[in-house]
Amino acid sequence: MSQRQILQVFEQYQKARTQFVQTVADLASRPQNTETLQNAGVMSLLRPLLLDAVPTIQQTAALALGRLANYNDDLAEAVVKGDILPQLVYSLAEQNRFYKKAAAFVLRAVAKHSPELAQAVVDCGALDALVISLEEFDPGVKEAAAWAIGYIARHNAPLSQAVVDAGVVPLLVLCIQEPEIALKRVAASALSDIAKHSPELAQTVVDTGAIAHLAQMILNPDAKLKRQVFSALSQIAKHSVDVAEMVVEAEIFPAALVCLKDPDEYVRKNVATLIREITKHTPELAQIIVNVGGVAAVIDYLGDSRGNVRLPGIMMLGYVATHSENLAMAVIVSKGVSQLAICLEEEQEDHIKAATAWAFGQIGRHTPEHARAVAVANVFPKLLNLYLDTESSEDLQVKAKKALKSILQKCTYLPALEPLLYEAPSNILKHVICQFSKVLPHDSKARRLFVTSGGLKKVQEIKAEPGSAVQEYINAINNCYPEEIVRYYSPGYSETLLERVDNYQPV
């Protein structure tokens, strides 16, 4: 065979490999083909091509594997079992930038499915190789590496700690300072994934100076970047008072409140989440948010939002109101109660209703004035219906009941209490009767209305155990009226009168 013929054979072999690997990569991009490709044993055919002498074949083989592994955990597991990861990690340090991006994509695709698969990526030494990639000049390589790191860190604290121990955090902070928007996004997302698991991990992120650099980007025009920035800040702030104070001290307020009106839904939600995570810690932090107009801004946000996007805003109002009478009054004055009532009416999901019920409880539990603000918004019947509705989730029933009880124990606004005399079950009714027994002795107008509205008659119909708290409340109410009035409205009194008529002998 001549030299020319030998070269032709090699050329044909290279073309065949190139065509094969490109076809597989194209097929792997469509989910309907993945099972057939796996059954055909494509993993074992792609593996040797990762070490091919031709760089484009290597890169395309890695891309094909990444696409397959990205599809589901079975295929990702097949990559692990096929002993492909060590090969990828080995070549990650050696090859060109195109291969490095493709290899990092495979690692990310495997790691994303479960903590076990992410651990397999860590166990094959991928973190050291990814750290080296973060130091590359090429921003695309850095982005691919940061993405893979975020997918490893997001699962749990031990994996996140492994990422930190590899020395990733300072490099990610450098990445968010790079000019490329895509790199900034992925680096901020990875920092968020690291910080979310524990106060210690969040502190590690804080110690590298991440907050100041993230704070500089809150008004960046790129919506996807703002999503990640606010997510990272909220994952940091949620853990402790100290780190929440550091986020506030980065002077992101009141500028961040502008983003509650951002066209991007996820930006708005992440800002609301950040405010919630700050206000939950202490009255002082909540007061700072109130002072910069945060409560009014969140109430407007609730009016403009629907569904799960509302949840962090609802909870933020509840957290603010929890801390003190004055802060709860700030929510009331800003018309927070009427907006929460709208949320309770409009939302279908039980977990959103439960959060709203909880927020009402935090607002109304302080003083009679607070309770009245909730009562006049006609919230009692709604909370009672949610508590009694067998379709409500257990959590919703518990929160509605707890909110109702805590508000009722402060409520002295009788027009809102009276309907509950007819509708409330005994465990709620006792709180209602208790409030009447407190108010009626000191209010002659209320005593008269209580008779004419039928309230006194209803109280006489309640069957209470002798010596019970409920019986004592009823006695206290009855003591507010002449004995003959109480007798007149007691069950059976009309029969007694008729009997007396029957037995009466005219003179």
The percent of residues in helical segments reads: over 70%
Kindly, what is the distance between the CA atoms of the first and last residues, rounded to a whole number of angstroms? 147 Å
Low-confidence stretches: none
Strand content: under 5%
Number of helices: 34
Structural class category? mainly alpha
Radius of gyration, rounded? 33 Å
Mean pLDDT: 85
The counted number of beta strands is: 0
Instruction: Describe the sheet with the most strands.
Output: none
Compact overview of the structure:
This protein is mainly α and 507 residues long. The protein contains 34 helices and no strands. Helix content is 74%, strand content 0%.
Task: Walk me through what this model shows.
The structure is a single chain. The protein is mainly α and 507 residues long. It has 34 helices and no strands. The chain has helices spanning 3-28, 34-39, 42-46, 55-71, 73-81, 85-92, 97-111, 115-123, 126-134, 139-153, 157-165, 168-175, 181-195, 199-207, 210-215, 223-237, 241-249, 265-279, 283-291, 294-304, 311-323, 325-333, 336-346, 350-364, 368-375, 379-388, 394-408, 414-423, 426-439, 444-452, 455-461, 469-478, 483-488, 493-503.
Produce the secondary structure layout.
Elements: H1 3-28, H2 34-39, H3 42-46, H4 55-71, H5 73-81, H6 85-92, H7 97-111, H8 115-123, H9 126-134, H10 139-153, H11 157-165, H12 168-175, H13 181-195, H14 199-207, H15 210-215, H16 223-237, H17 241-249, H18 265-279, H19 283-291, H20 294-304, H21 311-323, H22 325-333, H23 336-346, H24 350-364, H25 368-375, H26 379-388, H27 394-408, H28 414-423, H29 426-439, H30 444-452, H31 455-461, H32 469-478, H33 483-488, H34 493-503
Helix pairs in contact: 1-4, 4-5, 4-7, 6-7, 6-9, 7-8, 7-10, 9-10, 10-13, 12-13, 13-16, 16-18, 18-21, 20-21, 20-23, 21-22, 21-24, 23-24, 24-27, 26-27, 27-29, 28-29, 29-32
